[in-house]
Amino acid sequence: MPILSLPVALLALALAAGAIALAGPRMVRVADRLADVTGLGEAFVGAVLVGAATSLPDILATALPAVRGFAELAVGNALGGVLGQTAFLAIADLTYRRANLEHAAASLPNLVQGTLLITLLGGVMVLFTAPEGAVLGVHPGSLVLLVVYGYGLRLVTETSQAPMWRAVETEETTLDVPDEPVSDDGAPARLWGAFAGLAAVLAGAGITLAVAGESLVSQAGWNEAAVGVFLTGVGSSLAELVVSIAAIRAGALTLAVGNVIGGNTFDTLLVVVADIAYRDGSVYAAVGSSAPLVTALALVATAVITLGLLRRERHGVGNIGVESVVVLLLYVGAIALVV
């Protein structure tokens, strides 16, 4: 991986972010159709398939710097993505005019995903403050996080198929139902192919972001944690913003919220990816105070959004829910504290 000059690194950062922004809306249309033809549902497709695919830039922008010893850049990218994507959900709330997005898109799978995300972020906080203890360079707690994530996905599937709780339907509630009858037997194969191609575009953008981020730290001397949290982290997470806005415009509100929450759940595991890729011991012991701070803010922001899904306020401050306002204020506070 080359080290770029400052102008080239900034250009690469912009191009990668642009590629992610362009691929996102197309992925929403493909994913929405996949949810219908496979019967998996918008919440599951948004949280697992789209959430994982839009996390590909984050995976590569986290793993590659970690391999090369940029611990704070790698961890900052992962956690900055979680905090940034939660703020993106608040921005997406502004684009939905009928009601507060948390009211319209309330669903049990999204609530389970939100609770799982809070649990994982709490686990990461514990590992940041726990005594250092790496086995073959990996903290045992990272493996626990993987197990918790797997169990959480099982709960999401079970609650989608046999829910024991349902949100009260109102005139602003958008239900997850197929858009049209499925009759073309060849449609699933074509949709999976299109989805894979778009995922490859996002992966290429993630590699470019990793190169640009390392260059800004090495060549320009920019703060490693700030670059990870607010540049590569936000850049690699732009897919979640454009996917959520495109999903809202298409009427797939459950997918929009599930994409962000599920993507954040997946991105939290990128700290585990960083721990595995970082070869100089446990990555939790190699970062400064910014990482626990961003983790705590992301946890609070997630709890606020989950509370919003439970509270289901119809109309908040103008066209945006009170929870979204709080999340945006938390993000501004993160910028002030980290930078």
Automatic annotation (TrEMBL):
Give the bilayer topology.
Answer: Multi-pass membrane protein
InterPro entries from the UniProt entry? NaCa_Exmemb, NCX_ion-bd_dom_sf
One GO cellular component, as annotated? membrane
In this chain the Sodium/calcium exchanger membrane region domain maps to 9-150, 192-338
Question: What is its subcellular localisation?
Answer: Membrane
An annotated GO BP: transmembrane transport
List all membrane-crossing ranges: 74-96, 108-128, 134-156, 191-213, 225-248, 255-278, 290-310, 317-338
* Identification of the protein by name: Cation transporter
